[in-house]
Design goal:
This protein is mainly α. Helix content is 77%, strand content 4%. It has one domain: Up-down Bundle (Growth Hormone, Chain: A). The chain has 16 helices and two strands. A two-stranded antiparallel ribbon has the order 1-2. The chain is globular, with a radius of gyration of 22 Å. One of its GO terms (cellular component) is plasma membrane.
């Protein structure tokens, strides 16, 4: 059951007097970004290293992990729409989305630590433990990401402010990802030495504590200005109409799914590439530093480029340019370290707008759903995108594990020619194919800036 919503503006306190259509303070913009930073420190750490942890530290076969990732991540993704409905029904003095920054902080930190803890049960016991802790971590992800993504539309309905808010958020997200992924192997080495299990466990503890602190800061600094006032309940049919009749959302989600699969295949297997193909595990730090550092720099240019050109054009042109790096890496010798690192930088810089602008455009799809159906259901629309993201992660993780298994991957030994080829393909040509598909799909996105302004004017008249 969903609630048909009516948007009303309000002034919460003297330090929150910005109108929903006006400019937000820098404290609030940064605070909002820290909320997503706290999530991505954990989410991307898990995406980048959990497969490696399971295969090379826990000794679980890639085939078993492939099934684990697919089952757990799909269950996790299915929970997203449920979380969206829960959020839409939430009533608190802090609003609907903001309180979850506080409520999700503890479980997100706790289950991160437990996922990277080896319990030393029986073989069957360890597998059950992996399923349970991973499922609970996934549910914690949903508790965090659905409300955070919903906050964009709840904090402001100004299109340029949303773009700026999302850009600042993504800059902080990429700083978090940059530190999280690039520092993981050095921290694991520092804490554990040759004991990788201890090293990754304590690294996870550090990241869990950081995530907890950032969530609290975000909770204390953000405010909901576009409040949702429930009016009339609707059944499943009208609920589905919010998604099915939302053409921009369907196109955006399809494009983002292709991006998420390609991006996460590369992210998941980058540590394998430097460890076994390049024989320089120490370069995992430099490679991820350049990849996500480039993404961070790219985000700085996105607001100005989006003002000059339409957001869709920025996404298409930049992603098309990124294809050069994927094709180039496919034909680069493992000994050409400078070129490999340069291509990682190019890939990170030009692929980033597909991610950054997609999350900003999602808020437009929330408004489109209200304009098209008369139902404003932020949680359901936002959760559909989160579902897409997690589905992409699930497919990428499972594909990577099964592909490694099929190629004959054996952990902690010199790899066969077929295994090395599979690892290279998953860092180059395979993600490149998915990025190309993402570009083709986003070309059909229908909401331009002029159309959005016209749509919002009609919505204002109805409200």
């Amino acid at each position: 059951m969903l609630v048909s919503d009516k948007t009303v503006r309000f002034h919460a306190a003297e330090n929150q007097k910005s109108a929903s259509g006006g400019r937000l303070s820098w404290t609030e913009r940064i605070g909002y970004g820290l909320g997503d930073m706290s999530y991505n420190i954990i989410f991307q750490f898990v995406n980048a290293y959990l497969l490696f942890y399971y295969t090379d530290v826990d000794g679980i076969s890639p085939a078993i992990i492939g099934t684990l990732f697919l089952v757990v991540r799909v269950l996790d993704a299915v929970f997203d729409p449920v979380m969206g409905v829960i959020m839409d029904k939430t009533k608190s003095r802090w609003g609907k989305a903001r309180p979850y920054l506080l409520w999700a902080a503890v479980p997100l930190a706790l289950f991160t630590f437990l996922c990277f803890t080896t319990p030393h049960f029986s073989v069957a016991g360890n597998r059950i433990y992996a399923y349970v802790t991973y499922i609970l971590l996934g549910m914690s992800f949903s508790m965090q990401t659905i409300p955070v993504n919903s906050l964009t539309a709840r904090m402001t309905d100004n299109l340029q402010e949303r773009t700026l808010l999302t850009t600042i958020r993504m800059i902080l997200v990429y700083i978090g990802i940059l530190l999280s992924i690039s520092c993981a192997t050095p921290l694991a080495q520092y804490f554990g030495g040759d004991d990788q299990a201890k090293g990754f466990q304590l690294t996870a503890l550090v990241y869990a504590a950081a995530s907890f602190a950032l969530n609290l800061i975000s909770f204390l600094t953000v405010r909901e200005r576009v409040a949702i006032k429930p009016e009339k309940k609707h059944g499943v049919k009208k609920t589905l109409a919010v998604l099915i009749r939302n053409k921009p959302l369907l196109i955006l989600a399809s494009s983002f799914l292709a991006f998420a699969v390609g991006f996460n295949i590369k992210l998941t297997t980058m540590v394998y590439y430097f460890t076994y193909n390049v024989h320089r595990k120490d370069l995992v730090f430099m490679g991820t530093l350049l990849f996500f550092g480039a993404a961070l720099i790219s985000n700085i240019f996105i607001p100005s480029l989006s003002k000059k050109w339409d957001r869709k054009n920025v996404m298409m042109i930049s992603a098309a340019l990124s294809l050069i790096s994927y094709v180039g890496l496919q034909f680069t010798a493992y000994s050409s370290i400078p070129l490999i690192l340069f291509l990682l930088f190019v890939s990170g810089f030009f692929t980033t707008p597909l991610n950054t602008l997609a999350w900003g455009m999602l808020a437009d799809c929330v408004d489109y759903a209200e304009w098209k159906t008369g139902i404003r259901a932020d949680g359901v629309v936002i959760s559909s995108m989160s579902f897409t993201n997690k589905l992409g992660v699930a497919l990428a993780g499972s594909f990577s594990a099964f592909f490694l298994n099929k190629a004959g991957y054996v952990p902690n030994v010199a790899q066969s020619v077929s295994s090395l080829q599979a690892i290279k393909d998953m860092n180059a040509i395979i993600p490149g194919i998915f990025i190309l598909l993402s570009v083709l799909l986003i070309s059909f996105y229908p909401i331009t800036e002029n159309r959005y302004k016209k749509m919002m004017k009609e919505l204002e008249q109805r409200r």
